[in-house]
Description:
Radius of gyration: 16 Å
Distance between the termini: 36 Å
Number of domains: 1
CATH class: Mainly Beta
Number of strands: 21
Strand content: 35-45%
Mean pLDDT: 92
CATH architecture: 3 Solenoid
CATH topology: UDP N-Acetylglucosamine Acyltransferase, domain 1
Largest sheet: 8 strands, mixed
Shape: globular
Low-confidence stretches: none
Oligomer: single chain
Order of helices and strands: HEEEEEEEEEEEEEEEEEEEEE
Strand order of the largest sheet: 1-4-7-10-15-18-20-21
Number of helices: 1
Amino acid sequence: MISKYFYYLRGWLTSLRYFARPALIAQRGPLAVYRRYGTISIGQRSLFWPHAKLSCEGTAQQAAHLHIGERVQIGDHAQIHCGVSLTIEDDVMISWGCSIMDRDFHPNGLGEEQRRPTRIGRSAWIACNVVILKGVNIGEEAIIGAGAVVTRDIPARAIAAGNPARVIGQRPVSA
Length: 175
């Protein structure tokens, strides 16, 4: 029981230092947070497993905004890189080893890095080692299979897998 309180205390202290407003989050181990020219906001009761990384780096001309909703779980060694706008809505589960980004990290032929907003809808499940690239919208309650590379939008309630990720099914509607 004591360890549970320790996780929340460590998470709350991290939120005081790095986030736009304090949040009651559980931090199960080291959490790397990089913030420059941007804001990070995290909803209550989110959970970060060891060695997760949050990076929010905008430019002097355009601030970056990383928003993580309530009750989001982010697995160990998952990396989230925000350069303009990255939104993870409520109740999303992200497994270990995932990389989610809204930027390229390299200049295009004209010398400028490409950045486009990325969004993961409410209650989506992201399996281990998934890569989600810039400009992608993942719909509510979608499931992304292990090792997928998501380069295009995935509709709500879809099941997607592969490299590049393709829709392979639909979640049944629950009564």
